[in-house]
Amino acid sequence: VKLAAQNIIEEMFLPGFIGILADALGVAVVAIATIPILEKIAISCTVWLVGTIILSLIFTPILLSYTPASERFTRLAEKRSRKKENSKAALSLRGRFLALLGTWIPKRGKWYILIATIVITAVGWTYAQQIIIGDFFPGSSILWPFDRYNKDAFRIAFSMPLLNPLYVVVEGEQGGSITQASTLRGMDKFQRYVAKHERVMFVNSLVSSLPNFMMSSFEDDPQWNHLAREDKMLSFSARQMTYVGAPGTWDQYVNMKDTDANIIIYCRDKMPKTVESIMNYITDYVKKNPLPEGVKFVLAGGAVGVQAAVRDVIADAQIWNLIIALGGVFLFCAINFKSVMAGLILTIPLAISNILTFALMGAYSIGLTTNTYPVSSIGIGLGVDYGIYFVGRLLEERKKGAGLNEALFTTMTTNGVSIIQIATILTIGLVMWVFSPMKFQAEMGVLLAILLLLNMLGALLLVPAMICIFKPRFVK
C-alpha cells in the first residue's frame, strides 16, 4: 500500500499540481472585474483551491498508505486486474464505447470530428454575438422572474419612471460656467435631443424651469414662455431664478458656485436594451456636439447610469478574463509537457466550449451578469483537467514503447473511463442547482454543468483527433 501511495505521488503530483493551478487561475481571474462581491469570491476560492494541493496530492496518499486494505478491497482489485488482462471482451458498455472511439478516431473519425467542430463553432459564434450584458427582467437577479418581489418590481418599474433616472453632469472649470448663455443653450439643445428617444419619459434640469420663470417675470404672459433670446438676459434669468428659491431648492440641478449642473433623464426602465440604446444615443450626441470651451458633459449617474457602468465593467473584464484564463492554461500546459503544441491542443477545446456556452446564453436569453460572469473562467480552470489527464496517460503509454494508435486506444479505455466518471459526478451535482429557488444559483449550476460536459467531450474527442491529425513532436 505504501509503495502504491508513493507511485501515485510520483506519477500524479505534477499533472495534479498543474490541474489545481489551472483551477485556481480560473477562479482568481474573476477578480479582474472590480466589483467587490466578485473580488471576495475570487480571493476566498483561490486560497481554498491552493490549499487542496497539500491536502489532495500529498496528505491523502500518505493517509491511505497507513490505511490497511480490507479483504473485500483486495479481491475487488484482483478482479479488476484480471478483467484488464482479458482485454476488450471484459469491458463494460462504457468501456466498449470508448474502445470503439479509440479505434475509430485514428482512422476516419479524426476528420469527422474536426469538420463537425468547425461547423458547430461557426454556428455557436453566430449565436454568441446575441448575448446581452445585464438582466432581462426588472427586480433582483438573485430571484426568478415569477417571484413575488420581481413581479411587484416589474409593475412598479413600468408605472413609476421616477425610479429609473439617468444623470448627465455638465462640468465647468470656473465659477459661473453653468449660467453662461452658451452653456444653457447647449443644455437645452441636448435635452430636446434626448427627449426624442423612445425609451425616455422626460428630461429635467435647470434649463427646464427657465421658460416658466421668464413668463412669471412678465406677469404670466404666455408669449414669454421661452428661453431669453439675448445672452445677457438668459444668464441673468438663470442666476436670479437660483437665488429666488428657498435654500436647497436647486441643489439637485446646480451647485452653489455654478460650476456643475445636473441633467436628469427619466427612463422607462433599466433593462439591458434600454440602457444600451440610451447610452449609445447620448454618447453619439456628446461626441458630435461639444459644449463651449471650459465646459463638458460627464456620463453618467443614477440607477440607469450605475447599470451602464456595471455593463461596461463586465464587458471589458470578460474579454480579459478569457484572455488571461486561456493564456494561463496554455502556459501551464506548455511548461508541463514541454511543448507549445501541447498547450494549443489543450487550450483550443476550452475556447470552443466557451463559445458554445455563450451561444446557449444568447439563444435562451441568459444575460451576462455578475452571477454568470465567473462561469467561463471557472469552467476553463476545471475543464482543462480532463485534457491534462488524457495527454499525461498517453505520454506514459508512449514511453512504454506503444505506438501512437495503440497508446491512444489504451488511454481511451483507461483514463477515458475516469474522465467520464469525474465529469458525470460534477455535472449531475451542478444540474441539481436548477431546482434552487434562487435564480443566480440555478443559472450558474446549469451553465457550469454544460461547460464541463463540453470540456469532457473536447478531451475525449477533439484532443485525440488533433493529436492524430497534427502528430505533434511531444507525443513522438
Explain what the structure shows.
- There is one protein chain.
- With 476 residues, this protein is mainly alpha-helical.
- The chain has helices spanning 2-28, 36-65, 71-85, 93-128, 148-159, 181-195, 206-217, 231-244, 272-288, 302-337, 340-363, 375-399, 404-431, 439-470; strands at 165-172, 200-204, 260-267, 295-301.
- The protein has a four-stranded antiparallel beta sheet.
- Helix 13 packs antiparallel against helix 14 (439-470).
- The two termini are 33 Å apart.
- The mean pLDDT is 82.
Q: Could you outline the blueprint of secondary structure elements for this entry?
A:
Elements: H1 2-28, H2 36-65, H3 71-85, H4 93-128, H5 148-159, E1 165-172, H6 181-195, E2 200-204, H7 206-217, H8 231-244, E3 260-267, H9 272-288, E4 295-301, H10 302-337, H11 340-363, H12 375-399, H13 404-431, H14 439-470
Antiparallel strand pairs: 1-3, 1-4, 2-3
Largest sheet properties: 4 strands, antiparallel
Uncertain stretches: none
Helix-strand string:
HHHHHEHEHHEHEHHHHH
Mean pLDDT: 82
Structural class: mainly alpha
What percent strand?
5-15%
Summary keywords:
four-stranded antiparallel beta sheet; 476 residues; mainly alpha
Summarize the model shown.
With 476 residues, the protein is mainly alpha-helical. 68% of the residues lie in helices and 6% in strands.
